[in-house]
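Re: that backbone. Tokens:
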């Protein structure tokens, strides 16, 4: 499981670099939570949480996303992204939409 997660993190970093984001190697800690990827572009921050099929619905993931969302609501130049495998996208969209209800955290696939 850890290998799949790390490969997804690495692959998504490559995607962000192609989109002209600067990847900061050590993500900041937000209330005891450290996102998988922290990237910047201009004055904007992007916090990325990567989840595999087995972890998308666990309590720890929801806790991480809630902590991230709380931070994002206080920082208008910050956005969040939940990255999941393609086959889990509809579940991830439903989770984000029903839990947070806005677009501060988007869902992307890899």
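Recovered sequence:
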């Amino acid at each position: 499981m850890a290998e799949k997660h790390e490969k997804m993190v690495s692959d998504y970093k490559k995607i962000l670099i192609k989109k002209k984001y600067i990847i900061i190697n050590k993500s900041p800690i937000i209330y005891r939570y450290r996102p998988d990827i922290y990237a910047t572009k201009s004055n904007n921050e992007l916090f990325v949480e990567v989840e595999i099929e087995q972890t998308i619905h666990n309590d720890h993931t929801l806790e991480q996303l809630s902590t991230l969302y709380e931070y994002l609501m206080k920082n208008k130049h910050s956005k969040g992204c939940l990255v999941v495998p393609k086959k889990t996208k509809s579940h991830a969209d439903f989770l984000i939409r029903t839990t947070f209800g806005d677009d501060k955290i988007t869902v992307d696939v890899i």
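DSSP finds three helices and five strands in the chain. The mean pLDDT is 95.
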